[in-house]
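cron nightly-structures :: item 1 of 1
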Amino acid sequence: MNMTAQDEMARARNLAAEVIGIDSHIDTLQRVLVMGEDLGKRWEAGHVDIPRLREGGMHAPFFAMWVPVFYQGAEAVRRTLDLRDAMQSVLDAHPHQIELATTAADIERIVRSGKISAFLTIEGGHQIADDLRVLRMYYSWAYDR
């Protein structure tokens, strides 16, 4: 069977429609926090926004709440909280397009509803400021929706 490039593209699109596309590391929240970008719009700069997530078949991006290591202690925690607030602004601005997920079942439910399923990750150990209570606080975010 000799497939043309057009046939191969159609086959790839059909396969992509049957699976949940996951990107396990996106640093875009820095752009939302620092530059005030609205992820609902396509941007020339950066790599991720809602239009491109949809076009690329990314149903479940993991947004990294990355904090540079020059932030330490309470400042690292504060910066993490700022990033969480930045993500909440995205969720609040686009509730019909993107929703927070904390479980695999959430991903499946959200994707079936036609929305993007967003997971949050914390990238650096310094972001808990050597205090497991901070980690428990971050974990509780999953239940404070």
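cron nightly-structures :: done
The mean pLDDT is 90.
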